[in-house]
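Q: Structure for this?
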Amino acid sequence: MSANDNADRTSWLGREFLTWLWFESERNSTHIELENIGAVAVDFGQSLVLEAPGLGADGNTVKSDAPTQAEEARTALRTGKKVAKTRILVDHGEQHYEVSFSAETFTFGAAKLPTVLTSVDDERLDERLALFDRLEAILDGLYVKFVRLRMDDEAWAEVRAAMYRWVVTPTE
Amino acid sequence: MGLLNGSASYSRFVTLGELPEEAVEQTWADALEANGFREIQPHSEEDMSAGWVRFDDAFESSWVPAEVIESSGVVVLRMRIDTLKIPAVTLKAHLIAVEKDRMKKLQRDKFTKTERDQIKVEVKKDLRVRSLARMQLIEAAWNIGSGELRLFSTSKTIAGTFVELFEKTFSLSLRPVGAITVLWLRGMSEEDLERLESLESERFHLAGR
C-alpha cells in the first residue's frame, strides 16, 4: 500500500467534502444515491465549525437546532471558510445514525447507532460491529462519491458553478 | 460506553504487514500476555503503565488462545492505562508541612538544598504509596480479515500509546485512516490517488469570478 495520509496536503479535501455535503443535502435532501448502499438522507446536527486554511482558532462555531440555516454559517462561507467539523445525521431505510465528523482527522465523535435488538453479549457485539460497518460504509460512500465527482473535470465544473451561486446567494 | 453500548467516539486504523500463517491464536495469546498490564509500583519512579487486560476483566492479563479471536473474525482488545502522578500543588503543600514539622523537631530555621531535595523525594514517595492510580480502559475492535481497527478514543496521546503497544504485540504496523487511506480502503486505484494529489483546493466564494 503506497497510499499515505499527509494531513497538511490533504486537509482541504475533508473540508471541501463536508462543504459539498452541506450543499448536496440542501439541493437534494430527500436522498443521495450511494453505490452498494442505496439511498441515504443526510442532514446536519446542532453544531457546525467553519474554518479557513491557516486560520485555526479564528473559525466560526455555529450551534443551533439548524446551524446550516444560520446567517453566521452562510456569512462564513462567503468569506472563504469551509466546514471543518460537524454533526451529520443519516437516515438509511428505517435506520438512523448520528455522528460528529472531523474533516482533518476523519475521526468519529459521539456516534449514535440504531438500537441493538439482542441482549446476548456475543450477538450484541456482532450486531454493533455491523452497525459501525454500515455507518462507515455510508460516510465513506459519500466521501468517495465526492472525490470521484471532484476528479471528473466536466461534472465538477457544473457543481463548482452551482456551489458558487449557493455560497454567494443570501439565504431567504 | 463505546464498543458495546451507548454513543461511541473512535479513530480508525488499518494494519499493514503479514499475519502469522499458523497457530495465530496461541502466538497472539502469548504476545498479549507478554505485553499485559503491570501495576505501577508506588516505590518506583514510574508514573504511567500501559498494557493489555482481558475485555471482561480489567485485572486479568492472561488469555485462552481459543478466545482471542471472536467467531466473526474480530479481535476485541482492551488497553489499560494507569497514571500515578502527584499534582504539583498537592506535593508543594505536603512538602511545606513536612519541612515545618522537621524544622520544629530539629530546632532549625532552614534546610540546605540537598536536604530539601531529600525531603521532597520522601514526601513524593509517601504520597504515591497513599494514592490510587488513575485507571483508563480503552477498547478496540480489529477485523483481521480486512485489517481495519477501531480504537474507541479520539485522543492523540492515547492513540500514540495504543499504536506503540499494538505494533510491539502483533509485529504489525498500524496506520491511521484519513483522507487518502480511506479511499484506498474503498478500492480507489493507485493511479487515481496519485491524480488526486495534483488537485488544488477550491475557493467557492470566488469561483464565479
